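Project outcomes to date are best conveyed with an example. Our students and postdoctoral researchers have been running inverse folding experiments weekly, and each run begins with a structure described purely in C-alpha cells. The record below, which covers 349 residues, was selected by the lab manager from last quarter's runs and is presented without edits.
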C-alpha cells in the first residue's frame, strides 16, 4: 500500500486545516468520504475532492477506508473512534482524546485489541521552535530544569458559544478554556519536558461568561517527576487572542516561545530560534500551520507500520493534567497521579 484511503468525520471549523493538508499530501492520501450530520457541510467539504459524502458515519465502515480523521464535538471522539477501530480503521482524532479518563482508557484498550493505529492531534508540537526547545532540554545543555510556565490570554465572545450546541458545556465539550484552548500549551510543556506529572493543584473560574457553565479562567501548579514546577494561567476572557507564551527555566538559562517564535536566553543574551510563521495558517493564526506535518507523520506510521508519535497514551497524559486541575478545583486539594476522574456539572465556588 503506498496511498491511504481516508475519510473525515466532522466538517466544521477545523476542517479547513484538513482540506489544506489533504491538498498538500496528495502523494499519501485519497480523500474518499466526507461525513457530517449537516449534509451541506459534508457536501461542501467533498466538492473540491470530488469524493463521497454522507450524514451517517456507519456508512463508511465497510468501504475500504484505511484511516479516519475525527473532528467532532469532544464527547463523540471516543464513540466514533471505538467504532472505527473495531472496524479495523486507523484513527487520528482531534484533541482532546476524550472528555473522561475512563473513555480514554477504553480507547487505548480497543486500540491494543484491534492493533490499528490511534493518534491524537497536537499540531503545535510540530513547529521548528518546539523541536529545537525539546532537543535543547533533552540534551541537558540547560542543566536541571527547575521551572516552566505557560500563559494564554485569549478571547472567546458569547457568539462563539451561542452558535454551537456543544461548546461551553460540561457534558459535550468537557470543560472550557483548559480542555479546548490551553490544552496545546499544556501538551507542549509536557512534551518539551519529557516527564510525567506527579501532582496537580489548581482552580477554575467563570468570571465573564455567565451564559455558559464551563471555566473561562484557570490557574494551576503541576509538579513533574523530573522535579520541574510548572505554573500555568489560561483564560478566554481577555480582549484579544494574544500570543501564547511558554517558558522553560533551567540551571543554565531559559528558553521559550512567544506563539511560534522561539527564544533562548543565556546570561541576558537572547537568540531567536526562528522567525514568525513558516506558512500562513488557513484558519486563525493561533491554530498554526502544522496540521499537514502531523497528518503526514501519522500516514507514514500507518504505511510503514511504525509507532505513532502522538499516540493515545500521549493524548491521555495531557488530558490527565487537565482533569487533575478540574478535580483539584472541585475538591480543593492537591491531586496526585493516578487518580479517579471527577464529573463536573458546575464549578464549585
Ligand atoms: N487542533 C486545533 O488547533 C483545533 C482547532 C479548532 C478545533 N479543534 C478541534 O476540532 C474538533 C471540532 O471542532 P470544530 O471547532 O471544528 O467544531 P464544529 O462544531 O465547528 O464542527 C463539528 C462538526 O461535527 C459535526 N457533527 C456533530 N455530530 C456529528 C456526528 N455524529 N457525525 C458526524 N458529524 C457530526 C457537526 O455538524 C459539525 O459540523 C474539536 O475536537 C476541537 O477541539 C482543534
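After processing, the design step wrote out the following sequence:
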Amino acid at each position: 500500500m503506498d496511498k491511504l484511503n481516508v475519510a473525515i468525520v466532522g466538517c466544521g471549523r477545523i476542517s479547513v486545516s484538513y482540506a489544506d493538508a489533504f491538498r498538500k499530501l496528495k502523494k499519501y492520501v485519497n480523500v474518499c468520504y466526507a461525513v457530517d450530520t449537516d449534509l451541506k457541510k459534508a457536501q461542501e467539504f467533498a466538492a473540491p475532492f470530488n469524493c463521497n459524502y454522507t450524514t451517517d458515519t456507519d456508512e463508511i465502515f465497510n468501504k475500504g477506508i484505511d484511516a479516519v480523521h475525527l473532528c467532532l464535538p469532544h464527547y463523540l471522539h471516543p464513540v466514533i473512534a471505538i467504532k472505527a477501530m473495531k472496524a479495523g480503521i486507523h484513527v487520528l482524532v482531534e484533541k482532546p482524546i476524550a472528555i473522561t479518563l475512563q473513555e480514554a482508557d477504553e480507547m487505548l484498550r480497543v486500540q491494543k485489541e484491534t492493533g490499528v493505529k490511534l493518534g491524537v492531534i497536537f499540531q503545535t508540537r510540530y513547529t521548528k521552535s518546539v523541536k529545537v526547545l525539546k532537543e535543547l532540554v533533552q540534551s541537558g545543555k540547560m542543566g536541571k530544569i527547575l521551572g516552566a510556565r505557560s500563559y494564554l490570554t485569549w478571547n472567546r465572545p458569547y457568539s462563539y458559544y451561542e452558535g454551537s450546541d456543544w461548546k461551553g458545556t460540561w457534558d459535550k465539550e468537557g470543560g472550557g478554556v483548559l480542555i479546548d484552548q490551553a490544552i496545546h500549551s499544556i501538551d507542549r510543556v509536557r512534551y518539551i519536558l519529557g516527564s510525567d506529572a506527579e501532582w496537580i493543584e489548581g482552580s477554575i473560574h467563570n468570571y465573564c461568561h455567565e451564559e455558559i457553565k464551563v471555566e473561562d479562567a484557570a490557574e494551576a501548579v503541576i509538579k513533574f517527576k523530573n522535579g520541574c514546577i510548572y505554573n500555568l494561567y489560561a483564560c478566554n476572557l481577555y480582549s484579544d487572542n494574544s500570543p501564547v507564551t511558554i517558558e522553560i527555566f533551567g540551571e543554565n538559562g531559559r528558553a521559550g516561545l512567544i506563539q511560534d517564535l522561539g527564544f533562548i536566553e543565556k546570561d541576558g543574551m537572547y537568540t531567536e530560534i526562528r522567525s514568525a510563521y513558516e506558512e500562513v495558517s488557513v484558519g486563525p493564526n493561533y491554530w498554526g500551520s502544522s496540521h499537514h506535518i502531523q497528518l503526514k507523520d501519522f500516514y507514514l506510521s500507518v504505511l510503514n507500520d511504525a509507532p505513532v508519535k502522538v499516540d493515545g497514551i500521549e493524548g491521555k497524559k495531557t488530558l490527565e493534567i487537565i482533569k487533575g486541575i478540574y478535580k483539584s478545583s472541585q475538591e480543593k486539594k492537591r491531586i496526585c497521579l493516578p487518580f479517579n476522574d471527577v464529573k463536573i456539572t458546575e464549578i464549585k465556588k
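The chain is about 30% helix and 25% strand. The chain has two domains: 4-123, 128-273+311-336. The training component of this project remains on track.
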